[in-house]
Amino acid sequence: MTPAVTETEYRELSDFLYDEAEILSNQDYAAWERLLAEDIHYLVPVPQFMEQDGGRNIGIGNGYFDDDIHSMRIRLQLLGNPATTTSENIRSLLNHVVTNIRVTRAEDNEYQCRSCITIHRTRFSKKTPTIISGRRTDLIRRTENGFQLVKREVKLTQSILMSSNISFFF
Amino acid sequence: MLIKENLGPADFERLVDEENATASRLIFADQTIFELEQEKLFAKAWLYIGHETEIPNEGDYVTRNMATDPVILTRGAHGKINVMLNSCSHRGTLVCSTDAGSSRGFICPYHGWAFGLDGSLKATADDMELYEGKVDFNTLNLKTVAKVDTYAGLIFATWNDSAPDLADYLGDARWYLDLYHNRTPEGMEVLGAPHRWVVDTNWKLGPMNFGADGPHAVKVHGPITAATFQVPPTAFRDALVDSPAVSMGNGHNGIVTQVPDSLKEMVPPYFGFNPDLIEVYEKHLSPEQSSLNRHLLAGVQTMFPNFSSVQGAATFDLNAMPINFLAIRVWQPISATQTEIWNWFLVEKEASEEWKKASMLNGVRTFTAGGTFDQDDAEAWVSINKGIIGNIARQGDVNFQMALAYRDRTIDDFPGPGRAYPSNYAEVTEFDILLEWQKYMKA
C-alpha cells in the first residue's frame, strides 16, 4: 500500500503545482529555477504507437527532453533573456492548466504527485492556439525553503508535435 | 494561384535566376508548385527512408513517409530490405498502423488481406478460390519502390525506375557522408525513436538551412554557443567566415566549419570526438578526410532533396568535456506551407554505453523541437512563411547574392571533391540546392 497523505499535505502539494503552473505560464524562469532541486531530472519521452503485445524499442532511447540542473540552467538563462532567444522573443502567450492531481508519500520528505497538464499556446506567428497535453509524474521534496521538484516525467499525448518548437516547459 | 497546366520549363527557368542568385518567393508559397514537386521531384529522386540499425533482424519494420506517401520499411528474408506503400492493394487501407515493430507480415484491418514482409499478397478476405481464377493476384502485391539501396547504413529508396544507382546519385557526396557516417569499421547506430514535429513553412527551408546557411548561425545560435563554450561571439563568427562550404554535385551541399586559427592553441584536435576512437577514425578515413575532421567545429550537410545531417560538439556542464552529437533528419513536405521534421540521433557502434548516452543527451538538448539550437531556427522559418505568403510579398524574391561575391572563388587545394568555397557565408551552396530543384522541375 502506498502511504496516504493528509488533507493538509494534499493541499500543500496542489498549491505548489498551481503556483508552479503560473510561474511557467509567466515564463518567470528565475522563479522556476528556485523550484528545481540540484538533482532534478526532467524527462519527456517520445510517445510511440506500438502493438499492444509488446512493440519494439530501438536504441537506448532519446526523449524530447532529458535534462539535469546544468542543462536546465542554460535553457532558462537563454529563454529568460530576450537578447538570447529567437523562439521566445517575442514571447508566446501560455496557459498551463493543471488537473487530476493525486499525491502519495514517497521516501522520507518526498511525495509522488501525478497530474495532467494541458498547455494552450499562441504566438505572434501562430494566433490559433496550439494545445498540447501530457500526464506528469513528479517527485517533489519538502525542504527548508519550500517544495522542490526532483523528478518530472511527462507522457505526452502527441507522437508528432504540432508545434514548430517547444520553447516552454511542461 | 498559378495554373498547373500552364507551368512549363520556361516558368521554372524564371523562378530560379541563376545569374542573379535569386529565386521567386512563389516556390516557397504556392500550392500548385508544391503539387508539381510531388510528381517531378519526390517521385523521381532518391529519398531517405531509415537506418539499417532500426531494422536489425528479419521481421523488423518501421513505418515512414516518402514525401506525402506512407511506406513500410522492412527487413525481410535473408536480410533483404524492402520498402513498400502502406496502402492495401484492395481498398487502400493502411496495412500497418504502428511506428515500429516486428512481424511476419501485415494484415489489413478492413478485410483481412495479408501481405508478406516483401509486400507480396498472401491471402484475401476469404478463400482465394472464390475469385474463380478471374483475378491475377500477382498484380495485387503492395506497391514496392523501384529501387532501394544503402550507403553507410543509410537506407534510401526511389519510385523512379530510371533513377541512377544510389552510388551515382550520391556521387562525390559519399566522401562527405563518410566524415560522419562511415568513420569507423562498425559504423553508426540509431539511438532511439525519431522526433517528429510540424513547422508551418515550406520544406525547402530546412535543406537550404542545412546546406548550409552560415550567416544565420551567429545571429540565431550565437547566444547558445557563447553560453556553453564561453567563447567570444567573434571567434564563432571567424570560424564561419573562414570555413569552407562545398557543392558536392547533384544538389548535395554542406559546410565543414573549422576551428578558427585564433582558437587552435586552445582547442585540441578532434574536439568533441570520441578519444577512444581517434586512431580508428584516422585509419578508417583517408588522410584528406581526416584533415577536415581533425579541426572540425561543426559539420552540416544536405543530400538532395530533403535529407540532412548535423554534427557538433556540445556541453551543458561547463566542467564537463564537450561531446559530439550527430543528428540526421528528413524534411517531409506536407503542403506548400507545412513541413514535418523527422529527426534521429546517431553514434558510433564502437562507443561505450556511457559515451552513447552522453552523445544522445547533447543531441536532444541541441537539435530537436526543444533543442537550444533548433527551437530558434524554426521560429525564423515560420516567420519567413508569414512574410512571403501575401499577394504582394510573394511577387518578390529570396536573395542569395552573397553568391555573386563567392561563386568564382573556389579553393584550389581543397582536400575533398566537388567545388569548395572559402566561406560558410558564401550562400553558393544553399542556392545550389535550388538550382538542382530547378533541374528536376524543368525536366
How are the SSEs ordered, and which strands pair?
The complex is a heterodimer of chains A (170) and B (443).
Chain A: H1 7-26, H2 29-34, E1 36-44, E2 65-67, H3 69-79, E3 93-105, E4 110-123, E5 126-143, E6 146-156
Parallel strand pairs in A: 1-6
Antiparallel strand pairs in A: 1-2, 3-4, 4-5, 5-6
Chain B: H1 9-15, E1 16-17, E2 22-24, H2 31-42, E3 47-51, E4 60-66, E5 69-75, E6 81-85, E7 100-102, E8 105-107, E9 114-116, E10 121-123, E11 147-151, E12 154-158, H3 166-170, H4 173-181, E13 188-190, E14 195-199, H5 205-209, H6 215-229, H7 233-241, E15 245-249, E16 252-258, H8 278-284, H9 287-294, E17 296-303, E18 307-314, E19 323-335, E20 338-348, H10 353-364, H11 374-388, E21 397-399, H12 402-406, E22 419-421, H13 428-442
Antiparallel strand pairs in B: 1-2, 2-21, 3-12, 4-5, 4-7, 5-6, 8-9, 9-10, 11-12, 13-20, 14-20, 15-16, 15-22, 16-17, 17-18, 18-19, 19-20
